[in-house]
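note to self — DONT lose this again. spent like an hour looking for the file last time. sequence + predicted structure for the chain T wanted, 241 res
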Amino acid sequence: MLTRFFASESGADVGTLRGYAICTVPRSGSNWLGQLLASTGLLGKPLEYFNGVARRLLDDLSYPDDPPQQVERILTMGRTANGIYGVKLFAPQFQQIESVVRLSRDLPNLHFVFLRRQDVLGQAISWARALQTNQYRANQREQGSRSYDRDFILDRIRQIVQEYSQWSAYFARTGISPVEILYEDLLNDPRPAVDRVAGLFGLDGQAHIRADCVDIEIQRDATSEAWRRQFLAEEGDRNRL
């Protein structure tokens, strides 16, 4: 059993390991939420552990592409000393690993967090821009030119809606009631979201955000707002579906 082997290798008792998956869609504020949770020192270190390309780029040049080995990283580098691990998961990543990794078997005592962004247009603009520039965080350098592209933004809207629907269908089909967090609520005050995740593990009132461990900044700017205005001018006809 993968879990028992990896737990013994890391020095953790398999019975004490417990964790959560942040189920979401790109450009939903998931990097920020992950940093907020990790900053507490009690709620794991949620990252895209099923994204070998990103992990090699950002963390570890030797990071594997093999899903069972990625599970090992979740249960070792993805956990805090109290045995709580975290992972961030997009629907396409889940689909890529589901024939090899069984979440209910390989990730013990797994809870689910569903992170959504209400402003889907803003999310689509952010995603389109990130894909053009390969800049996913404010502290990264742009590696491509950005230009308004109505069809590209529209494609991102459709993809976002589809992936949110996949998660909603998954939770409905399995009877899972995830902790639901809205990006807009995070912007207003991140503490309630952190408290709700902490409550999954009986850590109510014990997980405190350390601002010095959080360096994610909002990338939305005047360009984003200009693209929104232009897109609405072109696609905002309320008389057609």
